Structure to design on (398 residues):
């Protein structure tokens, strides 16, 4: 099938907004006689006038050929999906060889390394808006899947039959919600039906991939909407039932309120991942302490709070997600420090606040600041701790 080709005056992609090194990679590949285009998220974002987070390049060159061209700048990675990473300073560009996939099958994809044509390569991609090529040399957008009109209509449609595409790779369902949350596009009616039918398939996909999508969405500036959609479409119920149950309670609103604030702050720079995950955990933890201690007129001591914190982290993300050890330790540190800064027990007035010797303390402080947007009384507490941290007294707590 011939693609629809949008000439320079028929599309909104401005080459000046492209990363110059990404353009260089495409140019070098083309000069060596290969087909090469920008593809996927970067083309979509540039057409929308958004700065892409990363650039993917698709080429007819095989991974070994890419390696031979870029030598030391190039690292071949991946087994399920073999591709080349080209490094320019701190930037990495993903270069993948055009692939053919069995788009008709409803089997879970295990390997995906059969080489193909540019057309076959877009056919195995997830959504029409992610299936566009940009050729910087001719400054044309190449569209095999009707992606450009969908982008203009703000419409999310799978490439191929949604039911099959979700069965083949259930992570696509989460990606659908991710794009819905990020761009607020309308979801195609068939895809909506397939989403409801296929949602339990999500349990077959790799927890690492979904965890990465979750983290990326918490960082995206659309985290509140994403968690809300994950809840509405029952993914949280499947992946993290205790958290889903909590979200439906009145206190569950606190999670969305924290994420609302996170989304505002993300515009000023990235927020630490442990802090983002703490937003999902803290209201749950508070509720547990309320029920198991405060409602029974018991004040938990630090050992009990630590135990409750560990339990809350496990329960919020159970049974699907396994939080990597380092990230988990940082979350514990952020959460437990909240109880030092805002203790349940009335503290005798102190001359100096004792700053814990904890490298993660600044994150705990930042989290307290986030909480204070919901509980204005905490603003003063935050100010005092911030002041003590920036101008420490001579002696520090051991
Ligand atoms: P982001 O802006 O979050 O990076 P993206 O669409 O660029 O979004 P990537 O994970 O960077 O997402 O993937 C790059 C491209 O690879 C996508 O645009 C899409 O064409 C294709 N792709 C990614 N994941 C899948 C998948 N699960 N199934 C099919 N195609 C996929
Ligand atoms: Mg991308």
């Amino acid at each position: 099938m011939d693609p629809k080709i949008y000439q320079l005056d028929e599309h909104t992609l401005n080459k000046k907004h492209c990363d110059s090194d990404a353009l260089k990679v495409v140019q070098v590949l083309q000069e060596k006689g290969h087909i090469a285009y920008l593809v996927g998220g970067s083309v979509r974002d540039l057409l929308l006038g958004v700065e892409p987070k990363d650039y993917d390049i698709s080429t007819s060159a095989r991974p070994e050929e890419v390696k031979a061209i870029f030598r030391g700048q190039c690292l071949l990675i991946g087994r399920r999906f073999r591709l080349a990473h080209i490094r320019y300073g701190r930037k990495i560009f993903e270069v993948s060889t055009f692939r053919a996939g069995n788009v008709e099958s409803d089997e879970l994809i295990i390997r995906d390394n059969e080489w193909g044509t540019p057309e076959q390569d877009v056919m195995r991609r997830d959504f029409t808006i992610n299936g566009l090529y940009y050729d910087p040399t001719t400054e044309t957008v190449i569209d095999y899947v009707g992606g450009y009109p969908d982008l203009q209509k703000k419409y999310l449609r799978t490439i191929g039959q949604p039911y099959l595409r979700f069965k083949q790779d259930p992570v696509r369902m989460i990606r659908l919600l991710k794009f819905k949350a990020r761009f607020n596009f309308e979801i195609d009616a068939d895809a909506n039906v397939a989403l409801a039918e296929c949602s339990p398939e999500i349990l077959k996909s790799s927890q690492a991939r979904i965890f990465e999508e979750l983290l990326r969405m918490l960082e995206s500036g659309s985290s509140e909407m994403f968690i809300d959609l994950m809840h509405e479409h029952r993914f949280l119920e499947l992946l993290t039932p205790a958290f889903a149950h909590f979200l439906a309670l009145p206190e569950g609103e606190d999670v969305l309120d924290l994420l609302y604030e996170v989304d505002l702050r993300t515009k000023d720079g990235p927020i630490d991942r442990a802090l983002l995950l703490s937003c999902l955990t803290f209201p749950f933890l508070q509720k547990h302490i309320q029920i198991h201690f405060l409602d029974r007129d018991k004040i938990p001591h630090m050992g009990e709070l630590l135990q409750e914190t560990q339990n809350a982290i496990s329960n919020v993300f159970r049974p699907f997600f396994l939080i990597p050890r380092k990230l988990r330790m940082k979350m514990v540190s952020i959460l437990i420090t909240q109880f030092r800064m805002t203790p349940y027990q009335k503290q005798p007035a102190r001359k100096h606040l004792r700053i814990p010797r904890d490298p993660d303390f600044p994150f705990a402080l930042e989290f307290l600041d986030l909480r204070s947007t919901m509980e204005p009384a905490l603003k003063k507490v935050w100010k005092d701790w911030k002041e003590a941290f920036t101008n420490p007294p001579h002696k520090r707590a051991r």
Summary: The first strand starts at residue 4 and ends at 6. Residues 181 and 226 are 5 Å apart (CA to CA). The chain is about 50% helix and 10% strand.
